[in-house]
C-alpha cells in the first residue's frame, strides 16, 4: 500500500474547480467578413472606362501600384482588367497591344461578393476560380475590392490570435 502522502484526493473531499479559461473563451468565435476587412483596409477602388486604352490602364496600374482596375460604366461594373490580362496581350500583339481598348481585354461580368460574405468563402471562391481580386457590391453599388493578399493577411492575423489564445489557455 502506498504511503498516505501518495494517495489521491478522496472523492468526498474534492472542492469545486473553477476555470479562468476555457477553449470557448480562448478561440475566436467571430466569423471575419468582407465588411470587417474593408473597415480596416478602406473602400478605395480604382476604375477605368471600357473605351480607354490598355496604355492608360497600364499607367494607372503603375502609378497607383495596384494589380487590377475595375472597368465601369454609369450603370455599374462591366469588367475587370488585371496585370495578367495586359501581359498576355502584349505577348500576343507586342507594343500595338497597348493601343487596344480595355473592353477587348477585360474579363467581363466578374464575380462579386457582398460585405457580409465570410472571408473563408471568399478565399475558397478565389482559389477555385483562380482569380486574385473580387469586387464588393452592396445593393447594386460598388463598396470595395478585396485581393487574395488582403484575405490571406486577415486570415493569418486571425490564426495568430487563436494560437496566442490557445497558448494562454495551456499556460494558464
Descriptive overview:
- It holds the Pfam family CBS.
- There is one protein chain.
- The protein is an alpha+beta fold.
- It has one domain: CBS-domain (Roll).
- It has helices at 23-26, 34-41, 54-64, 83-93, 102-105, 119-129, 148-171; strands at residues 47-48, 68-73, 76-82, 107-108, 133-138, 141-147.
- The strands form two sheets. A four-stranded mixed β-sheet has the order 1-2-3-4. The protein has a two-stranded antiparallel ribbon with strand order 5-6.
- The protein starts with 22 loop residues before the first helix and ends with a helix.
- The relative contact order is 0.18.
- The mean pLDDT is 85.
Topology at a glance:
Blueprint: H1 23-26, H2 34-41, E1 47-48, H3 54-64, E2 68-73, E3 76-82, H4 83-93, H5 102-105, E4 107-108, H6 119-129, E5 133-138, E6 141-147, H7 148-171
Parallel strand pairs: 1-2
Antiparallel strand pairs: 2-3, 3-4, 5-6
- In angstroms, what is the radius of gyration? 26 Å
The largest sheet has its strands arranged as 1-2-3-4
**Strand proportion:** 15-25%
Secondary-structure arrangement, i.e. CATH architecture: Roll
Quick structural gist:
It comes from Mangrovicoccus algicola. With 172 residues, the chain is α+β, with helices and mostly antiparallel strands.
Task: List its traits.
single chain; 172 residues; alpha+beta; CBS-domain; four-stranded mixed β-sheet; two-stranded antiparallel sheet; 7 helices; elongated; CBS domain
Amino acid at each position: 500500500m502506498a504511503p498516505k502522502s501518495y494517495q489521491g484526493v478522496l472523492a468526498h473531499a474534492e472542492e469545486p474547480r473553477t476555470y479562468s479559461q476555457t477553449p470557448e473563451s480562448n478561440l475566436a468565435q467571430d466569423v471575419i467578413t468582407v465588411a470587417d476587412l474593408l473597415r480596416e483596409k478602406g473602400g478605395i477602388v480604382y476604375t477605368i472606362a471600357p473605351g480607354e486604352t490598355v496604355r492608360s490602364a497600364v499607367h494607372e496600374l503603375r502609378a497607383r501600384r495596384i494589380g487590377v482596375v475595375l472597368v465601369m460604366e454609369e450603370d455599374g461594373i462591366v469588367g475587370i482588367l488585371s496585370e495578367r490580362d495586359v501581359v498576355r496581350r502584349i505577348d500576343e500583339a507586342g507594343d500595338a497591344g497597348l493601343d487596344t481598348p480595355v473592353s477587348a481585354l477585360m474579363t467581363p461580368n466578374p464575380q462579386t461578393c457582398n460585405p457580409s460574405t465570410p472571408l473563408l468563402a471568399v478565399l475558397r471562391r478565389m482559389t477555385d476560380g483562380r482569380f486574385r481580386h473580387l469586387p464588393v457590391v452592396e445593393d447594386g453599388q460598388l463598396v470595395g475590392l478585396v485581393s487574395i493578399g488582403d484575405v490571406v493577411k486577415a486570415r493569418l492575423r486571425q490564426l495568430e490570435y487563436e494560437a496566442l489564445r490557445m497558448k494562454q489557455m495551456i499556460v494558464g
